[in-house]
Structure formats: structure tokens, C-alpha cells
């Protein structure tokens, strides 16, 4: 599994790209100025860094993702369960629900999800 981590500010930057992609670099600079109070050079530096990690690509001034937001968070979730619970989803759910009561809707949603995998 690809080890890609984002800091808090990098996550905010990534969310801007995912929300607006494909986005021109000039528009991205403007968005980062207004939302993150960044200068142009900061935007380009962070974009280059995340491009080197294989998350985004700047192709002739148009920025788009190489990894979707959903895929990124799926990878992060898998990594967390692997590292913290030896890859055991039941152990994760047991720990999660030991302090948080699931609503009837959440239980139904989980059952439906499990049933959909059994049918595959």
C-alpha cells in the first residue's frame, strides 16, 4: 500500500484541489490566497511536493488529482486498521463501538454493507 500522509495544511490544500479540479494553477493560487492566506510561491511549493508524492499532477498549468479523495481516505483508513488493529476490521469496530453507541440507522447501514459483500 502506498504510504501517503498529509499534514493538516496539506489536507486543506488537497481538499481545495479535489473540490475544484481540474483547476488552473492561476485559479488555484487565487483560491489558496483567499482560503489559506498563501502566497503564490507557497501554493507552487506545496503543489510540487504533493505532485512528487503522486497525489496531484500539474499538466501545462492545469492541476488534477492522480488519487481521488475517496481513494485517498480509503487508503488512510486501511492503513490505520492495519497498523492499529493488525488489519482486523472486527477488532476496530469493537473498539469503536465500546465508547460510542450506534444508532439504528448506522446498524442497518452496516448490515446492508456486509450483506452486499456477501452477495458478491
Which structural traits does this protein have?
120 residues; 8% strand; Arc Repressor Mutant, subunit A; mainly alpha; 6 helices
End-to-end C-alpha gap: 24 Å
CATH-defined topology of the largest domain = Arc Repressor Mutant, subunit A
Tell me the overall shape. Answer: elongated
Report the major sheet.
3 strands, antiparallel
- Rg measurement, Å: 18 Å
Level-1 CATH class name of the largest domain: Mainly Alpha
Query: Could you give the order of strands across the largest sheet?
Result: 1-3-2
Structural class: mainly alpha
Q: Just name the CATH architecture of the largest domain.
A: Orthogonal Bundle
Portion in helices: 55-70%
The tally of helices reads 6
Can you count the beta strands?
3
Q: Tell me the name of the CATH homologous superfamily of the largest domain.
A: Winged helix-like DNA-binding domain superfamily/Winged helix DNA-binding domain
SSE string, helices as H and strands as E: HEHHEEHHH
Taken together, the total number of domains comes to 2
- Poorly predicted sequence stretches spanning 5 or more consecutive residues: none
Strand content: 5-15%
Average pLDDT over all residues: 93
Description of the structure:
The protein has 120 residues and is mainly alpha-helical. It has 2 domains: 8-69, Arc Repressor Mutant, subunit A, CATH 1.10.10.10; 88-120, no CATH class. It is 67% helix and 8% strand. The protein contains 6 helices and 3 strands, in the order H-E-H-H-E-E-H-H-H. The protein has a 3-stranded antiparallel β-sheet with strand order 1-3-2. A hairpin with a 2-residue loop joins strand 2 (56-59) and strand 3 (62-65). The longest helix has 17 residues, at 69-85.
Amino acid at each position: 500500500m502506498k504510504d501517503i500522509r498529509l499534514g493538516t495544511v496539506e489536507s486543506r490544500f488537497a481538499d481545495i484541489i479535489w473540490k475544484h479540479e481540474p483547476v488552473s494553477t492561476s485559479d488555484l493560487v487565487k483560491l489558496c490566497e483567499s482560503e489559506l492566506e498563501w502566497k503564490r510561491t507557497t501554493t507552487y511549493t506545496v503543489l510540487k511536493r504533493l505532485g512528487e508524492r503522486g497525489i496531484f499532477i500539474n499538466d501545462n498549468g492545469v492541476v488534477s488529482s492522480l488519487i481521488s479523495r475517496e481513494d485517498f481516505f480509503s487508503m488512510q483508513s486501511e492503513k490505520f486498521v492495519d497498523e492499529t488493529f493488525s488489519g482486523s476490521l472486527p477488532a476496530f469496530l469493537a473498539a469503536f463501538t465500546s465508547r460510542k453507541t450506534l444508532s439504528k440507522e448506522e446498524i442497518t447501514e452496516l448490515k446492508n454493507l456486509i450483506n452486499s459483500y456477501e452477495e458478491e
